[in-house]
Amino acid sequence: MAELKFEIVEKLGVLSTKSNGWRKELNLVSWNERDAKYDLREWNEDYTRMSKGVTFTEEEAEILKNILEDEFDK
Questions:
Q1: Confidence (pTM)
Q2: What pairs with residue 49 in β-bridges?
Q3: Among 3, 20, 43, 71, fewest CB within 10 Å belongs to which?
């Protein structure tokens, strides 16, 4: 299996932290030297392990933002 390469281009924010130190974060991440995407997942304290997560293009992140704004403006 090929090695997974990633670079956290920008740390945008921490949503929560578990008692074991893992943090759910929103970051801009470049996967396998591709353009960075918005990335939501849990990371361990030194960023050597991660959970499964979800990535969003800028367009998808904008749509998600609009959905969340509509939901919380009710």
A1: 0.90
A2: none
A3: 3
